[in-house]
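ok new one. same drill as before - structure tokens go in, u give me an amino acid for every spot. 463 of them this time. try not to just spam alanines like last time pls lmao
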């Protein structure tokens, strides 16, 4: 098939998947008034093949699945992810995440498991499938390993095997796109010891598989208009608690079976690609934050003030540091196993950490420049009532007419002060791994020997 249209993608979701949202089972994700927004958001990753074939199509297939074989391939992948995110107002769209997982499987799996991963990769490429990735387990007591949890189902694990299949039970959480993807790739979330063998499992299944249930988070629920919610009325991601109730997986779809040694490397290989994705899909969000800061400063008439110029300069430095590091991560890439090129893990993690650690300060700056109307401003009903609109136009005009100012403020409020703003704040801190996980990878990826030896020499300290 090669490439699917957005319409073929929507049609593919019409199966008997078990999706629950706001207390009820959903008949059709595409027909649901709120969930359909997420489908349209993700459909952008199919539309882009028609709009930007130079970036989004490689050898007649989706470029998202093109295996990186050089620095240039990674640079082009970054450009594609940035471009699709630009159309999605600075958020991840869909195909990025599944392709990150496929590259990790192709790099790390061995023997028959590699052959199955390769066959599955080829199917995804040929049929242009959209994949969600369930890596994060619910994890229970954080200080305990999988096999030491009081409830054994707090990490997904193998409960049975036969000649042709394995059966798994447990739950993953925060699974983005699960309700509107074709298939789900499951990866281990951490390194595992010999006692955790049952938990060292990876596979792929269609979403409409018996025993699989998705409980979708209700954040940003309800109808929202584009005046009050210019961003979140157009873009939505779905995350689920993803429950496996004795789900049988045909063995030809199992990529890791009771192989704890490979659990950690597979988890990390995914993270290395996925954080490269993250730092590219965040780039339009950085532009949005910078653009909004300049617009609101000018709208309030404070663009020339010294403290404002200082704050804008700091925002620019933060945003351009992340952008520069994102580019450097591709430049410093190196060839890994099976000729798959890997973005430089040190640079990727510093970029992701710089973004995440600076995000909350950036939002505080934006809130500061915008003023209190982020919380107390008028809504769409007020604006649509002529007598009230007259009052708003008179009293909320500043350096620009009131309508312009209110629209800029509502945009910023949606991004920072309303529920979608809360979602973005958590996303910045935890998605693609927590800030602490990034620090851990930075420390692991940096070899201090050169710096230590140099300093020893200068200090006259022998080894
Ligand atoms: C919007 C969003 C989308 C996401 N999408 C996906 C997805 O599509 N697929 C997927 O698999 N995951 C996804 N994630 C999950 C994301 O990777 C996790 O949220 C992240 O790894 C943190 O895990 P957690 O939420 O369980 O928090 P926790 O791991 O509980 O972290 C909370 C705090 O505890 C600390 N901590 C945790 N364990 C320990 C320990 N043993 N010792 C000391 N400190 C510890 C952490 O460093 C952190 O400071 C998504 C998350 C978000 C917010």
């Amino acid at each position: 098939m090669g490439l699917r249209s957005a319409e073929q993608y929507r049609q593919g979701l019409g199966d008997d998947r078990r999706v629950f949202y706001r207390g009820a089972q959903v008949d059709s994700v595409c027909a649901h008034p709120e969930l359909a927004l997420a489908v349209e958001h993700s459909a952008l990753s199919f539309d882009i093949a028609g709009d930007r074939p130079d970036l989004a199509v490689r050898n007649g297939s989706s470029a998202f699945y093109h295996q990186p074989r050089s620095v240039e391939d990674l640079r082009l992948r970054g450009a594609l992810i940035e471009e699709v995110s630009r159309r999605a107002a600075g958020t991840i769209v869909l195909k990025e995440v599944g392709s990150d997982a496929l590259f990790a499987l192709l790099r790390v799996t061995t023997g028959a498991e590699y052959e199955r991963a390769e066959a599955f990769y080829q199917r995804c490429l040929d049929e242009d499938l959209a994949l969600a990735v369930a890596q994060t387990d619910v994890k229970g007591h954080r200080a305990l390993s999988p096999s030491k949890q009081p409830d054994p189902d707090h990490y997904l694990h193998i409960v049975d095997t036969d000649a042709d299949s394995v059966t798994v039970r447990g739950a993953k959480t925060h699974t983005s796109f699960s309700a509107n993807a074709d298939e789900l790739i499951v990866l281990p979330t951490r390194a595992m010891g010999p006692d955790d063998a049952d938990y060292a499992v990876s596979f792929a299944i269609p979403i409409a598989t018996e025993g699989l249930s998705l409980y979708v988070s209700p954040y940003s629920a309800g109808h929202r208009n584009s005046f009050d919610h210019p961003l979140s009325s157009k873009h939505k991601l779905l995350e689920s608690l993803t429950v496996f109730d004795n789900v049988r997986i045909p063995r030809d779809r199992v990529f890791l079976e009771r192989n704890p040694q490979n659990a950690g490397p597979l988890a990390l290989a995914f993270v290395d690609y996925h954080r490269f994705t993250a730092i590219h899909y965040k780039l339009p969000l950085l532009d949005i934050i910078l653009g909004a800061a300049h617009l609101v400063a000018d709208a309030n008439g404070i663009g020339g003030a010294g403290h404002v110029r200082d704050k804008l300069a700091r925002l620019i430095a933060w945003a351009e540091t992340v952008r520069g590091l994102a580019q450097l991560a591709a430049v410093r890439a190196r060839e890994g196993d099976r000729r798959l090129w890997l973005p430089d893990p040190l640079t990727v993690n510093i970029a992701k950490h710089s973004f995440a650690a600076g995000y909350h300060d950036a939002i505080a700056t934006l809130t500061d420049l915008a003023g209190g109307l982020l919380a107390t401003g008028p809504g769409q009903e007020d604006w649509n009532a002529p007598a009230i609109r007259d009052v708003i136009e008179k009293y909320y005009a500043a350096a620009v007419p009131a309508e312009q100012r209110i629209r800029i403020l509502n945009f910023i409020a949606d991004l920072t002060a309303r529920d979608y703003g809360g979602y973005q704040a958590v996303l910045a801190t935890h998605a693609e791994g927590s800030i602490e996980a990034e620090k851990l990878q930075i420390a692991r990826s940096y070899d201090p020997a050169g710096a230590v030896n140099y300093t020893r020499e200068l200090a006259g300290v022998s080894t």
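The two ends are 62 Å apart (CA to CA). and btw The pocket of flavin-adenine dinucleotide is lined by residues 97, 133-136, 139, 142-143, 174-176, 239, 426-427, 430-434, 436 (CB under 6 Å).
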